[in-house]
């Protein structure tokens, strides 16, 4: 999940009662200034993610919840994908340190750290990071969660592998933000380092008639073909009735546009798949899975 704002804020222990100590690192690099790193030990408790207490924002449709502010609901609505085994195998081959952009509730960062890799998980939602910290406990000393914006992050270290999974790049709804993120990725890769990511493969039939297309997991409300941005609303489980989810804006990327964008940033495509099992990318593929290498 990327930042919806450019600022970095801390977690206050005043609303995090309990006995779940975990160190979170806050890091930002605004306007190309030197990185600001703050270390904050917070106490986390599952109670702070109660839907009737937090996670609502004033939207045009009224008081609606942003899914990324409700980590318990996110984990319920977005089932773990097959990507975990793919990225864990990739990490075994290339080693660490590893940076995950949009780490969310730690569903990939924690297994990677459990495999013995040094992992930094970056996310803009402190609610998601709080849940990730609870999940991780103290058994993963090589795992560090960072609250920040992937357009603004800056670290002194370089990474062997940078990962952006679950369509994280889809939240970059304009070319400027995408270019900024890709350039930051290159700046943080070791020589010959790997950038691995997966994005949704657009469904042309769905985009052609957005108001008519409904899937089990989401509804496409509108599509802007000029900017390639779709407005979607995820379908909540029938058992969850109290939460009204705000629509999400996601960028669609067509397969031919990704390689030149990577090239402009200083990377080349090593592999491109249509799924996490290595099958060829076709128009029927649900995903686009890329492995790119730094060339500069």
What does this structure look like?
This protein has one domain: Rossmann fold (3-Layer(aba) Sandwich). 21% of the residues lie in helices and 30% in strands. It has seven helices and 14 strands. The protein has a nine-stranded mixed sheet, sandwiched between helices. Strands 10-11-12 form a three-stranded antiparallel sheet. A hairpin with a 7-residue loop joins strand 1 and strand 2. The longest helix is centred in the middle third of the chain and has 14 residues. 38% of the residues are buried. The N terminus is likely disordered.
What's the gist of this structure?
21% of the residues lie in helices and 30% in strands. The chain is an alpha/beta fold. It is globular and about 50 Å long.
List its traits.
single chain, 296 residues, alpha/beta, Rossmann fold, 21% helix, disordered N terminus
Write the layout of secondary structure elements.
Blueprint: E1 21-28, E2 36-43, E3 56-59, E4 62-65, H1 71-77, H2 83-94, E5 98-101, H3 109-114, E6 119-123, H4 126-136, E7 143-147, E8 159-164, H5 175-188, E9 189-200, H6 204-208, E10 218-224, E11 229-234, E12 248-251, H7 258-265, E13 267-273, E14 287-294
Parallel strand pairs: 1-7, 5-6, 5-8, 6-7, 8-9
Antiparallel strand pairs: 1-2, 3-4, 9-14, 10-11, 11-12, 13-14
Approximate helicity band: 10-25%
Number of domains: 1
Could you name the ranges where pLDDT drops below 50 across 5 or more consecutive residues? 1-65
Cα radius of gyration in angstroms: 19 Å
Considering the protein shown, what is the CATH homologous superfamily?
Vaccinia Virus protein VP39
Give me the CATH architecture, please: 3-Layer(aba) Sandwich
Secondary structure tally, helices: 7
Strands, total number: 14
Q: What share of residues are in beta strands? A: 25-35%
């Amino acid at each position: 999940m990327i930042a919806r704002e450019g600022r970095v804020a801390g977690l206050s222990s005043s609303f995090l009662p309990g006995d779940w100590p975990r160190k979170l690192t806050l890091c930002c690099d605004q306007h190309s200034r030197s990185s600001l790193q703050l270390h904050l030990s917070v106490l986390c408790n599952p109670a702070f993610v109660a839907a009737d207490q937090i996670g609502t924002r004033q939207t045009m449709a009224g008081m609606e919840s942003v899914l990324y502010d409700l980590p318990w609901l996110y984990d319920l609505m977005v089932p773990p994908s097959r990507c975990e085994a793919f990225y864990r195998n990739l990490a075994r081959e290339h080693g660490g340190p590893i940076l995950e952009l949009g780490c969310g509730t730690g569903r990939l960062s924690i297994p990677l750290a459990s495999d013995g890799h040094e992992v930094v998980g970056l996310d803009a939602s402190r609610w998601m990071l709080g849940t990730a910290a609870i999940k991780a406990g103290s058994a993963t000393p090589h795992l560090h969660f960072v609250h920040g914006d992937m357009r603004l992050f800056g670290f002194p270290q370089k990474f062997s592998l940078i990962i952006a999974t679950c369509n994280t790049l889809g939240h970059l709804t304009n070319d400027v933000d995408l270019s900024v993120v890709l350039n930051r990725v290159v700046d943080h890769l070791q020589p010959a380092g790997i950038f691995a990511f997966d994005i949704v493969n657009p469904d042309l039939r769905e985009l052609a008639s957005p108001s008519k297309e409904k899937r089990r997991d989401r509804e496409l409300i509108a599509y802007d073909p000029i900017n390639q941005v779709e407005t979607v609303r995820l379908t909540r489980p029938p058992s969850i009735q109290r939460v009204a989810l705000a629509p999400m804006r996601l960028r669609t990327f067509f397969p031919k546009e990704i390689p030149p964008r990577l090239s402009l940033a200083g990377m080349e495509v090593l592999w491109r798949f249509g799924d996490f099992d290595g099958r060829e990318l076709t128009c029927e593929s649900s995903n686009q899975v890329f492995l790119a290498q730094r060339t500069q």
